[in-house]
Design goal:
The protein is an alpha+beta fold. It contains four helices and 14 strands. The radius of gyration is 16 Å and the shape is globular.
């Protein structure tokens, strides 16, 4: 498949025809190429977060998924937004299909990198807020902080946590994530 055009609008149907060896996201029909493999620090953070979430969720209804995992935020409408967050937690199993997540997950976590930080902080922040993602985390490996954004009245309200904290996950009562182990 040729490289998607920057000023062209695409749908999920188009996205499904693209080369699986290349990773893309689709936001409001605009294609964004994902950077190559993440750094070791990024992977360590992802692995530890996944471990802590998996440990808490064992035997419970919700599941955690790690990238690459497609999330089709507006699958029931325009179906033109497909993102691949670093981690997602989904509690409604009817949203999980062979293509990934069809609809809005309960929690999305993005681990920032220099090449994606602007996109995660601005474009995806707006998209997740608009779609109704209840809890959105921005994990910053450089500052060793986690910005937790909780949706209230269709707007995100954020708190920032340092690597010395143990934070509670709003969408998962009783779940606590030890940031000392994450960083």
């Amino acid at each position: 498949m040729p490289v998607p055009l920057k000023n062209h609008k695409y749908s999920y149907v188009d996205y499904c025809t693209w080369d699986n060896n290349e990773r893309w996201e689709l936001i409001d029909g605009v294609a964004y190429a994902l950077s190559p493999a993440p750094t070791p620090a990024h992977q360590r953070i992802s692995r530890e977060l996944s471990f802590q979430f998996n440990s808490f969720l064992k035997g419970k209804l919700c599941e955690v998924f790690t990238a690459p995992f497609d999330v089709r935020l507006n699958a029931d409408k325009e179906n033109n937004t497909v993102v691949q967050p670093d981690l997602v937690v989904i509690c409604d199993h009817s949203k999980i299909d062979e293509g990934g997540c069809r609809g809005v997950p309960d929690l999305i976590i993005e681990i920032l990198s220099p090449s994606t930080a602007r996109q995660d902080r601005m474009v995806k922040f707006q998209k997740y807020q608009q779609a109704g993602v209840q809890e959105y985390w921005l994990v910053d490996p450089e500052t060793k902080t986690v910005q937790v954004c909780l949706l209230d009245n269709k707007r995100y309200y954020a708190t920032v946590h340092s690597d010395a904290e143990i934070i509670s996950v709003a969408m998962l009562p009783g779940c606590k994530i030890d940031l000392k182990d994450v960083f």
